[in-house]
Amino acid sequence: IQDMGAAGLTCSAVEMGDKGNLGVRLDLDRVPCREAGMTAYEMMLSESQERMLMVLKPEKEAEAKAIFDKWDLDFAIVGETIAEDRFLIVHGNETKADLPLKALSGTAPEYDRPWVETPAAAEMGPVAAVDPIDGLKGLISSPNYAHKGWVYEQYDTTVMADTVRAPGLGAGVVRVHATGKALAFTSDVTPRYVMANPYEGGKQAVAEAYRNLTACGAKPLAATDNMNFGNPEKPEIMGQFVGAIKGIGEACQALDMPIVSGNVSLYNETDGVGILPTPTIGAVGLLETLDDMIAGLPAEGDLAILIGAPGSHLGQSALLAEVFNREDGDAPWVDLSAERAHGFFIRENRTLIGACTDLSDGGLALAAFEMAEGAGIGVSLDTGDMAELFGEDQARYLVACRFDQAEALMVAAGRAGVPCAAVGRFGGTSVKFGSSEAPLEELSRLYRTAFEAAVG
User: Fold this and answer.
1) For the residues 118-123, what does the mean pLDDT come to?
2) What span, in angstroms and rounded, lies between the C-alpha atoms of 399 and 306?
């Protein structure tokens, strides 16, 4: 059985035949269609969704049909496997295609396109000081970082009542029926990073997906890559593609999170200008039991604990892009050994953690605000330093927990050699960074209305 994605029936039939070392004969007169008069060309390349291609033993046809009828699903026998290496397509009693199947898959020609390495990013220029709360407002008023509830609240996110962790809190979590287990899902990429440094940007996309799963207590299992780039016939674009793949591959190996599926979307350009390189990483993690989930929100009086180094890296940061309209400097470096060690530490000490999020776009400032706002309480961070608040250094998490748990967490971190420090406290009705302060209600209103105001 295989899903129908790119190139629809063509791709799924050819790939399955090739894997089985068989040919395939398709009778398009038997393919269910939504419209009359579709050509063979249209039917073979249609990418209609929610479709699967299945190979059945002939004696199982009646049993399979009964199951599909039970669930009110379309079901049709549209062809058969054949011994010869042929891909035969028949429509209206006329042969529309007859060619070697393997020529379309296993023995298809492969491109070896010329590529040039992306040049090193120019050093970041001086960054003017900004009031920390004004910097936060610049982020949460942007469609990129504003609350996305206006989108997902229009859709059913609780199908079959299996949703355990709803949208808006990093990775989503759903139950697995009759097992006591649950799966966590996330998808991540920062195109600015990949544009500046495809190799580090590719590593970072995997690392952030790993952190998002870890932050809810799940053990990362596997990933899917969605490679979205411009025209690969341009050596500089192909260079982005090559660099990103190298970074993704290294990160997947280091974090034991293999790529198990994926897709590629190329030639994404408008008037000759390509999109930012966007190798999105989707990832899945496992919770052996729901008791393993880090599911809470910060509570009044919780300490804010930073796992990882203090912020320092503003190159290609959200603050630089949204507040200063700049995209300069290098992407942050990703220490994969630190990512693995810090992720393991979070999962091993989950019983001490009340709430957790990873630090990525917007650094400590945005992470602390989002945690606090989700709980409907304020937060006070001790520092007002711009790099410490908005720096996007990697391998970092923000944890909320009670004083006794925080003390135990710090002892455990010392033993494990993991950087860990108290950086503030949750509670009250305002957001305070250093000496800069604003009412939570005012910031929350901006955060929850900005996206609809921009695109609604």
Assistant:
1) 94
2) 6
Res. 439: pLDDT tops 80: yes
As a CATH number, domain 2-104 is 3.90.650.10
E strands, 332-429, are 355-358, 379-381, 397-401, 420-426
> Is pLDDT of 233 > 80?
yes
* E strand segments, 370-419: 379-381, 397-401
Helix (H) or strand (E) holding 369: helix 363-375
Instruction: For residues 257 and 204, give the distance between their C-alpha atoms in angstroms, rounded to a whole number.
Output: 13
CATH of 132-455, one of 2.70.98.10, 3.90.79.10, 3.30.1330.10, 3.40.630.30: 3.30.1330.10
Task: Compute the distance between CA of residue 134 and CA of residue 225 in angstroms, rounded to an integer.
Answer: 36
Helix (H, G, I), strand (E, B) or coil at 41: helix
Quote the pTM value: 0.88
The beta strand positions in 133-277, using DSSP E, are 163-165, 172-175, 182-188, 219-228, 259-265, 269-270, 273-274
Residue 169: which pLDDT band, with cuts at 50, 70 and 90? confident
Handedness of CA 128, 133, 134, 140 (dihedral sign): positive
Are 2-104 and 132-455 equal in CATH topology?
no
Q: Which two tokens stand for residue 161?
A: 């009542």
Q: Could you state, in order of their start, the residue ranges of all structural domains in the chain? A: 2-104, 132-455
Give me the percent of the chain exceeding a pLDDT of 90. Answer: 89
Query: Which amino acid, residue 239?
Result: G
- Residue ranges with strand state E in 189-258: 219-228
Check: CB of residue 314 under 8 Å from CB of residue 320.
yes
Distance CA 454, CA 456 (A): 6
Please state, in angstroms and rounded to a whole number, the distance separating the CA atoms of residues 277 and 386.
Answer: 28
Per-residue pLDDT band at 160 (split at 50, 70, 90): confident
The CA distances from residue 263 to 224, 300, 433, in Å, are 8, 44, 42
Number of CB atoms found within 10 A of residue 416's CB:
14
Closest to 389 (Cα-Cα) out of 399, 402, 380, 378: 380
Tell me how far the alpha carbon of residue 340 is from its chain's centroid.
Answer: 18
Paired with 285 in beta bridges are 184, 220
375-394 mean pLDDT: 98
The total number of residues written for the chain in this structure: 456
Measured CA to CA, the distance from residue 92 to residue 95 in angstroms comes to 8
DSSP state of 332: P
The pLDDT tens digits of the residues spanning 73-101 come to 989 999 999 999 999 999 998 999 999 99
Secondary element (H or E) of residue 453: helix 440-455
